[in-house]
Amino acid sequence: VIPRCNTIPVVDLSKALAHDRIVIVQQILKASQEFGFFQVVNHGVPENLVTDTMNVFKEFFELPAEDKAGIYSEDLKRPCRLYTSSSNYDHENVHLWRDNLRHPCHPLEDCIKIWPQKPTRYREIVATYSIEAKKLGLRILELLSEGLGLGSGFFGDKLSESLLLSVNHYPPCPDPSLTLGVSRHCDPNLLTILHQGDVYGLQVFKDGEWIGVEPLHNAFVVNIGHQLQIISNNKLKSAEHRAVTNSRVARTTVAFFINPSDDCVIEPDKSLIDTDESPAYKPFQFKEFLLNYSSLMGNPEKCLEPFELHA
Ligand code: OGA
Ligand code: NI
């Protein structure tokens, strides 16, 4: 049992359109430095689209097994796949109580063809959702680059080219003390735009303790991925987080991951290395990072190590 609190900053994005833009830029920057997490409200994504999207995902997980069997796969290389819990039950330290559906969202015209065909509205609704989530993500990246003093469009193009949708479904668990929904990890990407629905379960590690992220109606949770931490030479923080289960209700969450392209070279930006600092990481290709991340199963202590430079 951990405190559920509302200390994760909440940012009103509608104010970024008006004369309060500088205030909002500073709020986002501060939250990204201190927590690596914040929530956004008045974000411009239509509420009925979010409701439709969450409903379509819930319907997907409720489909009969035979309708989902075709995309079930434990092969990490399958771009669109459904899988459950973990395939290493006897040897894992923590058992996960989760089903996960994931697929790419860019380029949309190509990848939509491999998305689920059921429910029938899936492709249409999720395509619209992915366009809106991308818009929101790029808007937040633009505010962040303003806050960091980087040029406009800094995070456009290759740094944010690869888009991945990951839908988590956590059924009610008879004994939540024996499981987790997702183990502690940092997201390996640039930025995550998460919709956690109305059911509590997300926790963030800060100053040595876990704090709960209260579901806020019609808000998105935004978190800094490993790549933003690296590019900012540790000025922004990629915070550890996890999801817990509950015994009463199913929880469905949708993470929209904004990633660099595979061959994009990641390194601390020169303008973000202070004069009394040296770069904390060496340059690498994003695909090298992913390979290492998956071989370490996301272990947050170890996955930055091969790329670190020590002054
Ligand atoms: C993730 C994640 C949290 C949640 O998918 O990377 O951290 O609450 N999800 O589902
Ligand atoms: Ni995550």
Automatic annotation (TrEMBL):
Domain Fe2OG dioxygenase: start-end pairs: 159-260
Alphabetically ordered keywords of this record: Iron, Metal-binding, Oxidoreductase
Superkingdom field: Eukaryota
Annotated GO MF terms: metal ion binding; oxidoreductase activity
InterPro entries according to UniProt: DIOX_N (IPR026992), IPNS-like_FE2OG_OXY (IPR044861), IPNS-like_sf (IPR027443), Oxoglu/Fe-dep_dioxygenase_dom (IPR005123), Plant_2OG-oxidoreductases (IPR050295)
Keyword presence, Ribosomal protein: no
Annotated family: Belongs to the iron/ascorbate-dependent oxidoreductase family.
Protein's UniProt name: Fe2OG dioxygenase domain-containing protein
